[in-house]
Amino acid sequence: MKKFFLYAMGLFYVLAGLNHFFSPEFYYRMMPSFVPNIELTNIIAGIVEIILGILVLIPSTRKVACYGIIVLLIVVFPANVQMLLNALNGMDMGVPIIALYARLPIQILFIYWSYALKDYRA
Question: Which residues cross the membrane (predicted)?
Answer without folding.
Answer: 40-58, 65-85, 97-117
